[in-house]
Amino acid sequence: MSQSRIGKRPINVPAGVKVDIKDQTITVTGPKGTLSRTLRPEVSLSLDGSTLLVQPVGDSKMARSLHGLSRTLVSNMVEGVTTGFSKTLEINGVGYRAAVAGSTLTLQMGYSHPVAIEAPTGITFVVPPGPKPSVVVSGADKQLVGDMAAKVRSVRPPEPYKGKGIKYATETIRRKAGKSGGKKK
After folding, report:
1. Among 81, 104, 112, residue whose Cα is nearest residue 152
2. DSSP alpha helices (H): ranges in 28-170?
3. Rounded to an integer, what distance in angstroms lies between the CA atom of residue 132 and that of residue 130?
4. What are the residues whose beta carbons fall under 8 Å from the beta carbon of 69, sequence distance 6 or more?
5. What span, in angstroms and rounded, lies between the C-alpha atoms of 120 and 111?
6. What would the pLDDT profile of 119-130 be if each residue is shown by its tens digit?
7. How confident is the model at residue 183, as a pLDDT?
8. I need a surface site. Which of 34, 53, 94, 128 has the fewest CB within 10 A?
9. What tens digit of pLDDT does each residue of 87-98 get?
10. What is the CA radius of gyration of the chain?
11. CA atoms within 13 A on the CB side of 15
12. Residue 178: what pLDDT?
């Protein structure tokens, strides 16, 4: 059987990044932090100088399935500790505001109370200055950044009529027409 095209590609480990492999656990340390993950026994990791290789163990369907996934997860760990990941959320609506105090993001989204979201370890919230309110969620762990961005968005998801709410910067809101306003006969 053939191997995964993504899984076959080696992962280059940049200078300043330390990789430690013990059994099925890989720990990657870099300037942005330390990430650790335990991989399934169907894949094996090998470090050759500054190149990481992920290989399937055997030729089972599960090993072939996990080959490309495991390689991508390890690659995201290396990228996360070197450059990090971030997601930008835009806030649309009159009176909707965001503020950061320490590691707590406070959102005022038209409810009777402000909504506070505490950043877990490894995640930072930034509210850049400017005319349009927005929130930047950043960190080394790609999954955690995506989860926190989704949590912030879920406070007030965008609605399709006026587009009010919190949306990803790359997201397009499909707008709907409102009521026609004509009299019924």
Report:
1. 104
2. 61-82, 142-153
3. 6
4. none
5. 24
6. 999 999 999 998
7. 60
8. 94
9. 999 999 999 999
10. 22
11. 0
12. 85
Q: What is the DSSP letter of 4?
A: P
- Contact assessment for residue 127 and residue 133, using Cβ atoms and an 8 Å cutoff: yes
pLDDT digits (tens, 9 = 90+) for 134-181: 999 999 999 999 999 999 999 999 999 998 999 999 999 899 888 876
Count other Cβ atoms within 10 Å, centred on residue 118.
Answer: 10
Collapsing DSSP to helix, strand or coil, 37 comes out as: strand
List, edge to edge, every strand of the sheet that includes 11-12: 11-12, 51-56, 43-48
Q: Bridge partners of 136? A: 88, 126
Picking from 19, 76, 84, the residue whose alpha carbon sits closest to that of residue 50 is 19
Joined tokens for residue 10: 């080696």
Q: Which amino acid is at 123?
A: I
CA atoms within 13 A on the CB side of 5: 0
* DSSP label at residue 15: T
pLDDT digits (tens, 9 = 90+) for 49-88: 889 999 998 888 999 889 999 999 999 999 999 999 999 9
Confidence at residue 179, expressed as pLDDT on a 0 to 100 scale: 84
